[in-house]
Amino acid sequence: MYDSGKFEDMLNYCAKMLEKNPNDMLALQNSALSLLNLSKFQDTISFCDKVLTLESYDTYALTIKIHALENLKKFEDVLECCKLILEKTKEDTWALNTSGIALGELNRHKEAINFFEKTLKIDTQNITALMNMAISLSYQGENQKAIEFYDKAQTIDPQIKEIAIAKSREFEKLGLKDEAFLAAQGVLLQDMDKIKSDAKENKCSVFHQFCQMEFEENKSKKTQ
């Protein structure tokens, strides 16, 4: 039923199970999941709380409750739920990142950075932590550091187009127009200096140098 998106049917099925046993954990958990997918967030929380009354550290219920709270923009409550998960599993990167994101929503970016740092100590290539670290650093006015974190995220997953745009905006804030242009094209930091150096040597703009480079690369591909 879940895979078919039949969330009302799933909820009704769980209701029958709960008539037989009001403390059926699986039925309570799946009721909460159904309600979450039906965007009935307050009801979702109510079912999660029933599970948590029986098992205060049930990660599944806490995770569902967090998603509902995020939709209701109750970020202080999100932090409390994450705290419970982290009491049980200190290195839960999802809970660490979710705490950081909630703190960011509360405009507490300095605290948020601490959580993303904890995640990156566990997983240096965690894209969620890298991108949200960059966002928080940007809010702190540390644009150059934000650029470096966006660049690392882009190196790991160049398919995320939003990274190039965000990195470009950070360069714009620093008044670096050439770098902003290159960043918007998806150019990594390690390649920017070469392009700028070639532009200077060829006595042309960075824009023209980049276009020439693209032309030559495309021509080479066609030849091959």
How would you sum up this structure, described in words?
The protein is mainly α and 224 residues long. It has 13 helices and no strands. Helix 9 packs antiparallel against helix 10 and helix 10 (161-173) runs antiparallel to helix 11 (177-184). It is elongated and about 80 Å long. The N and C termini lie far apart (50 Å). The mean pLDDT is 92.
Task: State the main characteristics.
13 helices; 224 residues; mainly alpha; 78% helix
Question: Helices and strands in order, then pairings?
Answer:
Blueprint: H1 7-20, H2 25-37, H3 41-54, H4 59-71, H5 75-88, H6 93-105, H7 109-122, H8 127-139, H9 143-156, H10 161-173, H11 177-184, H12 189-201, H13 206-223
H and E order: HHHHHHHHHHHHH
**Care to count the β-strands?**
0
**Rg from alpha-carbon coordinates:** 24 Å
Please work out how many helical segments DSSP would assign. Answer: 13
Give the rounded overall mean pLDDT. 92
Largest sheet: none
- From the N-terminal CA to the C-terminal CA, the straight-line distance is 50 Å
What is the percent of helical residues? over 70%
Which spans have pLDDT < 50 for at least 5 consecutive residues? none
* Fraction of residues in β-strands: under 5%
Structural class: mainly alpha
